[in-house]
Amino acid sequence: MGLIDFSLSDVGEVFKDIREAITGKAIEDPNKRREIELKLAQLEQAINQGQIEINKTEAKHASVFVAGWRPFLGWVGGSAMAYVFILSPLIEWACSIYGLSIEPPQIDGTMLFNLVLALLGFGGLRTFEKTKGVQDKH
Predict the structure, then answer these.
(1) Could you give the CA distance from residue 38 to residue 30 in angstroms, rounded to a whole number?
(2) Is the pTM for the entire model greater than 0.70?
(3) Which of 36, 53, 71, 109 has its CA 20 to 30 A from that of 47?
């Protein structure tokens, strides 16, 4: 389980395993098990809804330090991608042509690529919200 893969159901599984380790038995009644799974799903949904409300409030904030962190990350990620995949190779190529022994600083493109893809995914979700008309109307 990675940090990104974490969900409340993982927490539920941990608590279930702890309870079974302490009592030595599992919940055998399928109705009781479904009831507990439903409660966990409802709790996870409530937490997600709360985070959505926090995100809406944060995006409306007047301070650029509160509302502007997402665009900032987008610009930083895009700039870093441009450097890693365009500018750095061009600098290396130009230096090899002119016989210069200058090597530009290296950035780990793998981690950067994963980060930018995640940001693009969030952007895609926002676009989907707008097309469905469920975005904030303010």
Answers:
(1) 12
(2) no
(3) 71
